[in-house]
Write a structure and sequence with these properties.
By secondary structure, this protein is α/β, with parallel strands linked by helices. The chain is built from 16 helices and 11 strands. The chain folds into 2 domains: 194 residues, no CATH class; 219 residues, Rossmann fold. The strands form 3 sheets. It has a 5-stranded parallel beta sheet, sandwiched between helices. The N terminus is likely disordered.
Length: 431
């Protein structure tokens, strides 16, 4: 009995070793190793501590566990966003674990004699140095991801370049070198003001927004459910909107990039949903599917939104648009530019929830100029994820009907007086 129980509880070592191997082969881990190497070389050179055990230990630890620490920061930001619905809260949620990590690193290096004590004193001590490095690294992460969302560079590479630059500057600045110290102070404080200042301005705009204008509402809408309708209705009423323009995602940039690199693929069609899965090329430290692995084709999601809006009697107040060419090249930033071109001088209100997708969209609104955010805290338990798992009563009658026809794989789908051909889950009207 003991042998059987021991065998039953023994770990699957081949699987464990495979996961460990994937972790250390992942682009995120390689990024961490490069940042750790740059950090070691920079601090060893600036503080003349090439053989210091504390610096070597911190560098090795950082290289191995930077991806895990980054994942923790992401989760903390997502939790704060969903709990409070304010950009400032989310950024504080990301900042706190980063500062705690950097504070521990600087304390270890300071106590272990890896830092020039006279130099570190010129920037206010090790706690102040950790604060400045945290603020600077936050700034370069947001800028790197901003550039990636605009189609410039790779997300990991952008962040790597930014973190490496701030690491070198931090090492030179904490050594008290002329000009480097001043640059370190300016960059750290400047990025702090930039990151938290923009977030605070966004939160203020969300509370003091004037009424009237056009609402824009972006998301996957996978599928469009009752809370989406409630959000639209409340936004129209509370902001006095002339209308709301809804545009669903086509292929999110994260997925488009991962598909191009062969890191994910569409595995099969199930109940009308395309089921995505990762491949052996996937980065173990990246969450490719924050909104789940099941996606209705964009044409189908668009049709469901139109049907639900018509059934709710909102057709005169809601316009569903589908700028495929613009979205594929410029994403939602391009969609906003197109909305402005078609409605010159109109005041824009950015509608969003507080889940991961909603706050990502909020960031896009903020990047695109003076858009007034309108957010709703998600507390009603209605979830597209739950719907995809089979939950009932969360979608309008017409959406429920269409999903049922897709599950039955009917060649022709009829709903709301409209007729669609079902081409492997893609609804094509009029054929």
């Amino acid at each position: 009995m003991a042998a059987i129980d021991s065998e039953r509880r023994s770990p699957n070592f081949p699987l464990l070793m495979r996961k460990i191997g994937q972790y250390f082969r992942s682009p995120s881990t390689r990024l961490g190793v490069v940042v750790a190497l740059v950090s070691y070389l920079s601090y060893a050179y600036a503080h003349i501590s090439w053989t210091n055990p504390a610096l070597i230990s911190v560098s090795v630890f950082t290289g191995a566990f930077l991806p895990s620490y980054a994942t923790l920061s992401n989760k903390a930001e997502l939790w704060a966003n969903n709990r409070f619905g304010f950009v400032t809260a989310g950024r504080l949620g990301r900042f706190v674990p980063q500062y705690a990590f950097n504070l521990a690193v600087f304390w270890i290096m300071y106590a272990g004699g890896a830092l020039n004590r006279d130099g570190i004193a010129t920037v206010g001590g090790f706690a102040a140095a950790a604060l400045l490095v945290s603020l600077a690294s936050q700034g370069v992460q947001y800028i790197g991801l901003y550039l990636f969302q605009r189609g410039l560079g790779d997300a990991n590479r952008n962040v790597l370049i930014g973190l490496s630059a701030t690491t070198v500057l931090g090492a030179l600045g904490t050594a008290g070198l002329p000009f480097a110290r001043e640059a370190f102070l300016v960059v750290g404080l400047g990025f702090g003001v930039l990151v938290f200042g923009i977030g605070l301005l966004s939160d203020i705009r969300s509370k003091v927004a004037p009424k009237g204008g056009i609402g824009v509402f972006f998301g996957t809408f996978n599928p469009f459910h009752n809370t989406h309708l409630t959000i639209v209705q409340r936004a129209i009423e509370e902001r006095g909107l002339d209308k709301v323009i809804i545009h669903p995602t086509l292929i999110p940039r994260l997925h488009a990039d991962a598909l191009r690199k062969g890191q994910i693929r569409v595995a099969r069609l199930e109940n009308g949903f395309q089921i995505y899965e990762t491949t052996d090329k996937a980065d173990l430290n990246v969450d490719y599917f924050p909104a789940g692995k099941q996606f209705l084709p964009p044409e189908t999601r668009r049709a469901l939104i139109e049907l639900a809006v018509a059934e709710a009697g909102l057709s005169e107040k809601v316009e569903v648009v589908f700028y495929r060419e613009i979205y594929n090249v410029k994403g939602f930033q391009g969609v906003i530019a197109e909305v402005r071109r078609r409605h010159p001088g109109a005041r824009l209100h950015g509608i969003h929830g507080t889940d991961a997708g909603g706050m990502t969209v909020r960031g896009i609104y903020d990047e695109c100029g003076w858009i007034y955010p309108w957010r709703i805290l998600r507390r009603d338990k209605v979830s597209a994820t739950a719907i995809r798992r089979g939950a009932k009563g969360m979608t309008s009658t017409v959406v429920t009907d269409v999903l049922g026809q897709l599950t039955a794989n009917l060649p022709v789908v009829t709903a709301g007086g409209r007729r669609f051909r079902n081409d492997n889950g893609v609804l094509i009207e009029g054929e």
